[in-house]
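Reopening this ticket.

The earlier resolution said the output was attached, but the attachment link was broken on my side. Pasting everything inline this time so it's all in one place.
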Amino acid sequence: MAKNQPRTPSRPQTYYIEADVAEGLAAVSTAEIRFRFQKFVNFYSTIKPGKEDATDDAGGVVLFSYDNALSELLKLQTVQSLYLLQRYPIARPKALLGDEHLRNVRAQIATVRALYPDGVFKTLRLNAAGSDSSVMMRLKTELAESEGLAISEDEADLLIRVRPTPSIHEDDIGWDVLVRLSPRPLATRAWRVCNFEGALNGAVAHALVRLTHPNPRDVYLNIACGSGTLMIERQLAGPARQIIGVDIDPAALACAQQNVIAAGAKQHVTLHRGDGRALPLPDHSVNAITADLPFGHLVGSHAENVRLYPLILQEAARVARPHAFFGIITHEVRLMEQLLAAEDCAWTVEKTLKVELGGLHPRMYVLQKNP
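Inline output:
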């Protein structure tokens, strides 16, 4: 096995974890994991030899060992899903049906189920290439019967993935079994009681918030706040002096209000009906801003964006204090880069990230207001 590849843990308290993240945000998720669990984690690379840091070419995966309570990992906010990983030194998945390996798979499942009260897990799904093969069908049946769960071909409470071990060297052989640590993806937010067209994924929204360097002294503004995702994720990221959301659509504000209440953030969030091109705020009054600008797909059009984007940037600059951060996600890459390259632009680009979201490839821009 390659030097930087994790092995079956020799100590019961050592776990190997695979975190699925939005492609392009592995560095952000790695930073969050380090911040929360620095002394308990060690990162690995499964992409290229000689790269031990999950931020290097990690795509949509962060892989690490972890030596603390698994329940603490469920507090991560920028991760789509977490999996308990074990690697089996076998040539074919049929060997998983052997008594020893099957007991080990069941032990993985028991570790995950122990994190929750009885009755939380009712259904099981096995996700694998060739999942309809006789071997995978037998494995799925054996596990469902032993765990007392119904088999599901769609979303399930207990999700198990089986795959060949990603190889760095030609002599690496084996199969991985991954058991999801939660009945639903971590990116599925319990506070989302109202959905709104074009709403941003919670984990991606949290990543954008983190890129604005949250500070307890923040007066934070979410332009075109929609159903409130970015505002709620800002509250989850830590205290702020004030969290403000502005949207021109009363239906969006009503939806945001429902989500804010469900998130227990009502006392921290102020909602205003207003136009992002004429914000109901005084000059130089905020020091952190985010916006999920219309992509021109589900919401808006390119022609509208050509008129809207420069006005949003100008108005955000008016209300921003010097050195304020502005996090933007948009699919209008060419338009945004033209605007940011203009000589009279009030913003400096601190960071640009390419992100993959459901077949779209938007970019995140982290801007800082010029002094």
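Reporter confirms the inline version is readable. Residues 1-12, 46-57 have pLDDT under 50 and may be disordered. The CA atoms of residues 94 and 171 lie 20 Å apart.
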